Amino acid sequence: MNINKFILEKSYKLISLVSNNIYVFIAGLVILIPFITFQVILVSLILVGFLFQNLYMKRNSSTVYVYVTLDSLLILINILLIIFIKNILNMNNLEFCLLFPLSYTLYRIKHKIKNRKANYLDNPKITFTLMLSTLILAWLSGGVVDYLTGYVSSSDLFQQFGFFTPNSPVNVIMDFLSLFATITATPWFMIVMGIWLGILGFFKVLETNTIENRIRLLLMMFAYAFYSIWLPSFSPISNNVPYIPYMWFNGLGTYGPVEPSYLLDGILGTFIVTAILSFLFGSRQICSVTCTAPFMLQGTFMDSLKKYNRSSKIGRKTLTSKIGKWYRYVMILTWSSLITFALISYLDYEKVINITILGNDPTMFYASLYFNVIWYLQFILIPFVGNYSCVNSGICAWGSFNQFFGYLGFFKLKVKDPSACLKCKTVDCANACPVGITDMRASFIKKGEFKSLKCIGIGDCVEACPYNNIIFYDVRQWLKNKIKI
User: Fold this and answer.
1) What is the gyration radius of the CA atoms in the chain, in angstroms?
2) Farthest CA pair distance, the chain
3) What are phi and psi of 168, to 5 degrees?
4) The pLDDT of residue 175
């Protein structure tokens, strides 16, 4: 028996067992949480991963499983909210009562959904509720673990709760965003997200047949753990990360201001190295491997949400490989603001001027606003905007930079036999694309290859092709052809 199929069968039995008895497992966690809070939180995220994998397994008839998942998430949210409010924020009994309105709101959302058709792939409101609930759960889990490990103190969090005594609507919004970003910016939040999404990524690897796709997925999971979490946060060289080329994996503002001491080697070095790599191998080296986004978007359940690229109103507007005017405008606005902020940051450190945004360095403010706030808004809005909206919207400067050099370079998709595409009736390649490129088949038939700024080399089209007809082409294949000559 194929080892992958064997592991899948055994894993699916375990997941079904856990999902069918989830309330028993949660009851056990409730009993244990006063004694081993840290361990219980991590185990609860494993259970969440199992629940979402179970939804994916039963995605064609997921009605009852959606209810069970929402119930379980609601219970876990309440448990963690109690811990967060009482132990971390040291709130008095009056403020503690805020728990109950939130609990009731979540209950009403779940109750309304229960009276409707409940397949998550057919109802964006259900999927949004699942995504929002899990993000709340992950945020609370990250906050509690940050506190337990001493990464964030209760005073650090509590001082940002100024929106309980609001001075103005703007202050309320900024205090909330600051509190949200304080936790999402921590490595422990990424670890918490990585647990439940890592389970989905693991099953994606098992379901993948193409060797290159499987290697890419494994590299992606390794990069998330080693490159995005351990190396910059827990390694012995974490303090030197700003000086290392390629470590500014999300571009300007990722690890600090545009400080002259590491401008040339750390910042500009990163842009030069990634531009070369994208030119040689395509933007997939960032957008499908080392960025944290692909890890969070490519697991089994998350990958199934690409259906919303074709069924949501906004998602449908991003279909095909064409770049719309609105995309160009967003990208120009994103880059112009980032370059302006970078210039201000540099001049600040040269003591030519002294300008901050809400007390923060401009580029660090930009990076935190996008990667710690806006990105997660995109994440939970997938049912309404489609999957991989960071690629399709032009709002990610780092992605568009590497996509541009990838488009100039060697990377493309090629087909062995264009006539097979002509005869193909299912067009599985277009349906499989997570970024909604639906016109690759026409290019295959006409040119025998496909190249697009939006193509980030995820390879689901290669995996889905019923004729095993699509192949990756980059500098490696180019060199092979030159050597043969």
Assistant:
1) 23
2) 79
3) -160, 160
4) 77
DSSP states of 146-172: HHHTTSS-HHHHHTT-GGGS-S-HHHH
Say if residue 71's pLDDT is above 90. no
Give the pLDDT confidence of 429-465 residue by residue, as tens digits. Answer: 999 999 999 999 999 999 999 999 999 999 999 999 9
For the cut 60, the answer to whether the pLDDT of residue 96 exceeds it is no
Domain boundaries, the chain: 3-151+186-191
pTM to 2 decimal places: 0.90
Tell me the per-residue pLDDT of 171-201, one tens digit each, with 9 for 90 and over. 777 778 888 998 999 999 999 999 999 999 9
Is-contact 42 195, C-beta < 8 A? Answer: yes
Query: How many residues does this entry show for the chain?
Result: 485
- Return the beta strands (E) in 50-171 as ranges: none
Task: Write out the DSSP string of 281-325.
Answer: H-THHIIIIISHHHHHH-SHHHHHGGGHHHHSHHHHHT-SS---H
* Chain-centre distance for alpha carbon 259: 28
How far apart are the C-alpha atoms of 150 and 156, rounded to whole Å? Answer: 11
Question: pLDDT, tens digit, for every residue of 240-268?
Answer: 999 999 999 888 999 989 999 999 899 99
DSSP state of 470: E
Cα separation of 246 and 118, whole Å? 44
Please name which of 448, 316, 332 lies closest in space to residue 394, comparing C-alpha atoms. Answer: 332
Bridge partners of residue 470, in order along the sequence: 415
